[in-house]
Amino acid sequence: MLIDFDGFILIGAFIMLLFLLLFFKLHLKKRSMYLLFFSIFYLYLCVVFNYTQFPIIIDENMKKEIGQNIWRDANFIPFNTDHFAITTSILNILLTIPFGFGFPYIKKTNFKQVVLLGIVLGVLLETLQLLSALYAGFTFRYVDINDVIFNCMGVILGYGISKGFTLVYRAFIHKFDIKLNSFLRYIYETNDRSI
Question: Which residue range forms the structural domain that includes residue 119?
């Protein structure tokens, strides 16, 4: 059996987004621009989960052929040369840069919180991979502490890029006295409160 990020899972993710948007709008009285930025961030998270968690393969024959490789191939030693791959590390950084860049548009945050978020995101992704592997009895994805480290680095890097963008954006707005529409104003106000 192959479980992929389509069909019922995709529909469920969309329905959850609708419920969240309704909750934010009706209960928390969030503005339309917040809902837009939240939707973009939510879709990004769906892409991350699709890339890191799916497909999940449940096949007794493959389980017998591959064997219980879950703990055998797991790596809990940082930068262990037996498990270290430059390409994978770079991809893990690139995967989470948008998280660090986009999160300040959803919630005011500081550097310490960003580091914690990076660790939590990395641990969450690896834990979900481990749980799906334990359920299936084998895995093509390996639990690796290096993934957590480089996911966290990507979040921190994204946050740094966001802060740099904030400074340039605000300077540009002031220098050219640009009239702000609701989209540009949301970016400006969010950046203004996050510095």
Answer: 2-194
